Amino acid sequence: MIQDLSKTLKRILTQPGLPPPLSNALILFDRPEQSFKPQQTAVDLFLYDLRENLELRSNELTIIKGDVGAVTQRPPMRLACSYLATAWPVGGADPALQEQQLLSQVLQALGRFPTIPAALLQGTLVGQEPPLPMVALHPDALKNLAEFWASLGNTLRPSLTLTVTISMPLYDDVADFLVTTATGTVAGDGTPDAWLQFGGRVFDNLNNGIAGALVDLLDAGLRTGTDDDGRYVLSGVHPGVHSLRVVAVGFQILNIAVTVPGLSEDYQIHLTPL
Prior knowledge:
Elements: H1 2-13, E1 26-28, E2 42-52, E3 62-65, E4 69-73, E5 77-88, H2 95-111, E6 134-136, H3 145-151, E7 160-168, E8 174-177, E9 180-185, E10 192-203, E11 214-217, E12 222-225, E13 231-237, E14 240-247, E15 254-260, E16 268-270
Parallel strand pairs: 1-2, 10-16
Antiparallel strand pairs: 2-5, 3-4, 4-8, 5-7, 6-7, 9-10, 10-13, 11-12, 11-14, 14-15
């Protein structure tokens, strides 16, 4: 996924219509250490830092409903990827001015997009939502440039920083079922009797499934336990409002009222640690 971000940045810097010398430059992703000496004019985008964007962190689940089931999606990590952009002119009468011109063109090409346009996304980034924010000249990047270049064994040179935040899924989607209804017959009198089955999952405060939790439908005298993924199923439930209690070691006991039949998200239970 990170490599697809690099491919996306290369796509931005190789679009038709860009002016020379940028239009003729190689786009590289190498470490700009002392031995780095391109044989052709190049722009180097060195990925130097990866960290979670805590401001965009979310613990909210997304439930996508289908005809017969639902898919629960856990939120992805919002990963901030920071690049150091440098220009490496080859030939010409004044390399320093060419270097400055190249950096100006790179900044113009990248700085015009506060978010990366969907049409330019590559690979696994295609279709990502929300749009990927991109910040050229990030104010918090590389506080000590001289120390950074010294660590690479190279001399200080002009550069600009670029940070793009992508969504990186960490968990597989979980397919759940919707409430199902069946009609039976009460023995003896032939009276139709509706009963239902419903289920969901029990989560902790980090949206991890809790195994071994006890789920009681108190007024119906029904009990079940959660599996390794925190899933539970209760069958033979009459329509109406019921008292549900969930007990798990290390968590506060939860008592809630649930309506059966109801929405799938009504049966996704979150417990609070003691």
